[in-house]
Design brief:
Length: 468
């Protein structure tokens, strides 16, 4: 072998070794910012200077597959404000600025989302949708997006009451159902939550408890806001939690509120690894800039790398939710069935309260879909939570049980795949003596008998802990 050929062979071997040992580019890069407020002084400064608040960050955003943030406010006129003070009514003309900056979607569930009432919530959703931006409220959660070959579920929650009275509780049945649906249908579940105390730079004990509950019920990543200052992220039960990303674009004047954090999360080899990018906004300015030249500080989440959840497989089909599109209906979830990378069927969009699955007919049986929907029954004339059971075939879901009531009015139900049973949370009243306002509850266990449900033996604490 000549010297030149030997040298070329060595170069090729060295190159192959580097390819095996050096990490490649991340499969996906997701960025999440803190609070974005485009009213008051931000609006006044932009109207005067005509410079995008993201002029310093556009290059960073261009490197990401997804950029999201929390839109603190509502589209509407200030004359419609429900409160005299601190109303963040924003003009619809501000929305294209977000799209042009590189945002792909925004959560719109916070204490200012209802500043001009229901009309403002609807106007916000419409303006974002028309701009091609995903809008995520609690009502429309989980919202599903598909990036490359990964399905991501986005859930928006606020435990801080809005001006129109809307607020969620953590823990609660409603949040648990959305998390269960997201966990079952998505590879990655991201929860955006408005919580904590304003201007407090450490998470409260309540935030810690809520974070643990969210993670235990399906969240892979939690991004928080509302304190308007940074709260250090932590790894909780193996999942990254950003307690507060602080302000991103805001007009508050306290020095601590001028610093923000961007959650920089990279999905590689089916594992999620997050770090923080810090931003700073000079006093009197509305334009954040990188505080650390796009490098991350010491990363408390370095060892926190949860794995993606595999896609749901039933009847030989990969079950996926139909992802969001700009012309998608806001109502309901459509399920799709895939085989060998090809779409085989699609269901109509329906208002699914919860999606679960399990081997209800025994450990050797094929899994069945167990879905909760809200419908009015012709039997009891009550609109309530109804259970449905579906097998999956070549044309899609095949109904095995069509929403008939169980023993008592139903609040929630989960599948225990180990025992093949359903653990149900019921109201404390009955169909004979109904009381929708009943504050008592009871649990019951049911077993699928092939054409319906029969009462099963009590499984004790395992059932009690499977429902909130």
């Amino acid at each position: 072998m000549s010297y030149q050929k030997l040298f070329l062979a060595i170069l090729l071997i060295a190159s192959a070794c580097r390819a095996q040992t050096e990490p490649g580019e991340p499969d996906l890069r997701l960025l999440f910012t803190g609070d974005i407020m485009l009213s008051r002084q931000v609006q006044a400064q932009y109207s005067l200077r005509k410079r995008s608040p993201w002029s310093n960050l556009k290059a960073l955003f261009a490197k990401a597959d997804w950029v999201g943030g929390n839109f603190e406010g509502t589209i509407g006129d200030s004359s419609q404000c429900l409160l005299e003070k601190n109303c963040f009514a924003t003009q619809a003309s501000a929305v294209p600025i977000l799209r042009d900056a590189g945002f792909r979607g925004l959560t719109i569930e916070n204490n200012h989302a209802g500043d001009v009432g229901t009309a403002g919530r609807e106007a916000t959703r419409t303006a974002l949708q028309q701009a091609g931006l995903v809008s995520v409220s609690f009502e429309t959660s989980p919202q599903f997006i598909r990036l490359k070959d990964t399905t991501i579920a986005l859930i928006a929650i606020t435990v801080i009451r809005a001006a129109d009275g809307q607020v969620q509780a953590v823990p609660s049945v409603e949040v648990a159902q959305k998390l269960r649906t997201a966990r079952k249908l998505a590879n990655l579940v991201v929860v955006s939550i408005h919580w904590g105390a304003e201007l407090v730079d450490w998470p409260t004990e309540t935030q810690h408890q809520q974070a643990e509950w969210l993670v235990d019920h399906g969240a892979d990543l939690v991004v928080g806001h509302h304190p308007h200052v940074i709260q250090a992220p932590e790894c909780i039960h193996g999942k990254p939690v950003f307690f507060s990303l602080g302000n991103h674009v805001f007009d508050q004047k306290y020095l601590e509120t001028k610093d923000g954090m961007i959650a920089d999360c990279r999905l590689h080899d089916r594992h999620l690894l997050c770090s923080a990018i810090h931003t700073h906004t000079e006093p009197g300015s509305y334009i954040p800039e990188l505080a650390d030249s796009d490098t991350t500080s010491a990363n408390p989440l370095a060892g926190c790398s949860p794995a993606e959840t595999p896609s749901l497989q039933i009847g030989g089909y990969e079950i996926r939710p139909e992802p969001w599109t700009p012309d998608a209906s806001r109502d309901g979830i459509a399920l799709t069935g895939w085989k060998n990378g090809t779409l085989q069927w699609r269901t109509p969009r329906r208002n699914l309260l919860s999606v679960d699955s399990g081997k209800l007919a025994g450990t050797d049986s094929e899994a069945l879909l167990f879905i909760l929907e809200r419908h009015q029954s012709t039997l009891d004339q009550e609109e309530g939570v109804r259970p449905y059971v579906y097998a999956v075939g070549e044309h899609g879901p095949i109904a095995r049980w069509r929403g008939s009531a169980l023993a008592w009015p139903l609040l929630d139900a989960t599948v225990d795949d180990r025992s093949g049973t359903i653990c149900a949370l019921h109201r404390g009243d009955s169909f004979l003596v109904p009381n929708k306002n009943s504050e008592t509850t009871r649990t019951a266990v049911y077993r699928w008998n092939g054409f319906g449900f029969s009462g099963a033996e009590d499984v004790g604490e395992r059932c009690a802990h499977s429902v909130p």
